[in-house]
Amino acid sequence: MLPPGLLRRPLAAAARLCGARGRPQVLASLATGPRQNNGIFYEIRTYDIKPSRMKEFVELVNKYFHLRTAHSELVGFWTVELGAMNKAVHVWKYDNFAHRAAVRKALANDKDWQGKFISPALTCIEKQHNEVAYLVPWCQLGKPSKEGGVYEWVTFQMKPGGPALWGESFQAAINAHINTGYTKLIGVFHTEYGLLNTVHVIWWNESPDHRAAGRHSAHEDARVVAAVRDSVRFLESQHNMLMIPVACSPLK
């Protein structure tokens, strides 16, 4: 049970976030907080691939994933270069849960998809994991200014309380990095299913070295340092990965 004083502060923060958009929202609980004003959500799928089969798996994806994207929108598909090994991450957009259910039913009945991709791909996969996440209210899904480059996937495990508790501080830290100009924000996602109070942030950089130089400069920027110090009050852990888009990924 939160003390009354602590309870009022996150609710006030949530009210300011909602009010800034001019559309009041009702908070169902402190665990969720404000969201986008529609039913759109994103399914994040993470596959651990057998080391000896990674090349084969990527070839299957690039050859047959047009069969999968005929059913619903793929946001991006990446393999992980640093921060993990033999891992693939892909993100799917759905209008609502009924839309996802209809897509899954259609895929189960798609003989080409099942035979050409699923059957051989399953022999390459060691483990599968999925999450459902919403874009935070102050973020729209972005795209890089050009093709090429690398993506950084940063996962923040926040303290319980949701965006109503840590939303303003987290947004300030993200904006401080954006304002340095060295990186491009693609999206900020807050989990609804999976490990709760998890935030995934996707950044785009021209190259790993460009990202390293930008981070070095950002850490010497007083505005970034102040914003990060404020936001880490709500942080429990952090993990990041450097990812390379596969050939069929819409985000390249």
From TrEMBL:
It holds the Pfam family NIPSNAP. GO terms for biological process: mitophagy. InterPro entries: Dimeric_a/b-barrel (IPR011008), NIPSNAP (IPR012577), NipSnap_domain (IPR051557). Transmembrane segments: none annotated. GO terms for cellular component: mitochondrion. Residues 42-140, 151-250 form the NIPSNAP domain. Belongs to the NipSnap family. This is Protein NipSnap homolog 3A. It comes from Aythya fuligula (Tufted duck). The gene is NIPSNAP3A.
